[in-house]
Specification:
Elements: H1 2-21, E1 27-31, E2 34-39, E3 44-53, E4 59-64, E5 69-75, E6 81-88, E7 92-98, E8 104-116
Parallel strand pairs: 2-8
Antiparallel strand pairs: 1-3, 3-6, 4-5, 4-7, 7-8
Length: about 130
């Protein structure tokens, strides 16, 4: 029992440092999250504003997940938002990637929807009018 009390101050002293080392989730948003095309299959065009809050230290990149193409990179809190001209006919995932370990720390989807289904065409390809 005396051993426990001899270690107790050390445990209490170390506990707050463990709590502060836990990583907080990174806020990462896209505005708007949805892009609406007129017909199914059409390319949707939309200016999307990405915003995030990254830790003060570390190097990060905003990456288009389909082809792992970095759109922009920065260090710490040097950059907190990025405006992107979105062009796609399908839902696209964007990631914040830590350059220290090349892991995605946050993801957001830009969803592509449409107003009308694709126009029907006759199987023969012939139309009267």
């Amino acid at each position: 029992m005396n051993r426990f009390y001899s270690w107790l101050p050390l445990i209490l002293f170390a506990a707050p440092s463990f709590a502060s080392e836990q990583k907080q989730p990174i806020k990462f948003t896209a505005t708007p999250e949805q892009c609406v095309a007129l017909h199914k299959g059409q390319v949707c065009y939309q200016d999307v504003l990405f915003q995030w809050q990254t830790p003060a230290s570390g190097r990060f990149c905003l990456v288009l997940s389909q082809n792992q193409q970095p759109l922009t990179c920065w260090e710490g809190k040097a950059l907190q938002q990025y405006k992107y001209s979105f062009e796609s006919d399908s839902t696209t995932i964007f990631s914040l990637v830590s350059q220290d370990d090349l892991n995605a720390v946050a993801e957001v989807k830009v969803i592509v929807t449409w107003v009308y289904k694709a126009p029907k065409q006759s199987p023969s390809g012939w139309r009267l009018f």
